[in-house]
Amino acid sequence: MFLLSKTDKRQHPPLYASTVAAGFPSPADDYMEGALDLNEFLISHPAATFMVRVEGASMTGAGILSGDVLIVDRSVESRSGHIVIAIISGELTVKRLIKGDNGWFLKAEHPDYPPTKIDPDAECSIWGVVTGSVRRFVP
Amino acid sequence: MLSNNDGCIIARSNEAKALSIPMGMPLFKARGLIRHYGIKVYSSNYPLYGDMSARVMNALGAFTPNMEIYSIDEAFLGLAGFEYRGLSDYGHDIRKAIKKWTGIPVSVGIAETKTLAKIAGHIAKKSAEANGSFTITDEATRRDILSRILIRNIWGIGSRWARMLNSQGIKTALDFHDIPERWVRKHMGVTGARTLLELKGQPCLDLESHPPDKKTIRVSRSFAKPVTTRRVLRESIAAFAARAAEKMRQNGLVCSIVNVFAVTNQFDRQSYYRGSASSHPPTPSNHTADITRAALIAFESVWRPGLQFKGAGVMMLGLVRAENIQGQLFFPPDTLADARKERLMAAFDKINNSVGSNALRMASVGVNERAKCGVYTVQNHHSPRYTTCWSELPIVRA
User: Fold this and answer.
1) Nearest by CB to A55, which of B97, B386, B395?
2) Contacts of B339 in chain A (CB under 8 A)
3) Is A18 a catalytic residue?
4) Which residues, 6+ apart, have CB-to-CB distance to B53 below 8 Å?
5) ipTM score over 0.85, yes or no
6) For site-directed labelling of B184, which of B215, B284, B314, B381 has its Cα 20 to 30 A away?
7) What is the pTM of this model?
8) Active-site annotation holds for A89
9) How far is Cα A71 from Cα A133, in angstroms, rounded to an integer?
């Protein structure tokens, strides 16, 4: 108990090595929230998210152009209506997955490209679901 | 898959293993087989492996709060509290999720101790029946499994102990499991006894969620072309020393001994030379100037004119945490100077991080980049850095 008051006497004010700004503190200091982070906006599951680059014009109707970078989340369960990355005979392709009356289809978003029926026996698998796309206008 | 300079085969697919291509075989010796069977050969792609490993470890973290990352491709997960999910089912859930999320096939071994879990993991990988996940729960399974594993394949039993045990007639892990603890303690000490208890299902090795401090830091390279000039080898050693000092600072460590080594072609038995020498900084340090100076002093004892050096490196020994440096009796610490050196290195690292490594360097590293171009790595069978480099992203057809 008595020791406490004794130590009190020996306390020195801390010496700060940095300079202290004179004048008023910024009124915005209390409202700082950190900068916007595009990763946070575009990616929900970082461990399962991959980026791929598009080549070709078959998805222009969905706003996907040649050269775009697509965000692919492999942890999302694919369902009808999703834009997906499918593997067809060893090649990655981007199409819209559609469940029709007579089976599943990979549908292009361009009049020149007919839809492909997913043959249950053929080598085709859904690699991941496209959750976003990124494009730069000025390099 | 090949080692750093496309020198040796360091990883093989199951198909390559079936052709009995041995681990570590120099590439030039395997050329015939590779051509004959049309085997695909890849240079090592550490940015890709590192990123994929981090993804798998991150994904595993979703399955338990207790996890020890054991190496780039192994982790221990504490599953206490998840028994209600059925551990065997949980193992298959983990395997399926990792495969779906990352594309990486993993094997899951579940047991009461780390040593048994390693065995279960091995079975999960090798047995088609296990389908990627294997659980050792009851006594009968455990005894059955142990009876079919040689003692030298048990985690923690080195080749020396395996020979000793074999000479006593102890061949399988079950033979070992059944000998009295007193005998093991007497002949193999507490480490051996720990392995014994672990095999019996009594955990003696905890999960290490915080990896222990590194014991040594090593920076080494094999050269693409043999190095014959003193200047190039000396500049390389200086560059390795700078990198090692940077690594120590990242880990908050200082070293008291700096070892330098250089080797000639080991396949040329007659003229094979391996030089190694040590020096020490004035006090334990991670300051680039101190480490470089020590390394260059050691270099003088390693250098031999007229030799063709194939590889070289530095090793930092006697590592301790920077805050635990022992005071020196005759050299009282110069706190002010130390603080200045520390700030200088902090600024040094900051600049190199933002401008590119080696933007700031010691003069001994040299300035002539072009002369050194191609000194370090040849990678002729380069696979794309799919996940870490914008210009090498996978292409999808639209």
Assistant:
1) B395
2) none
3) no
4) B72, B73
5) no
6) B215
7) 0.73
8) no
9) 6
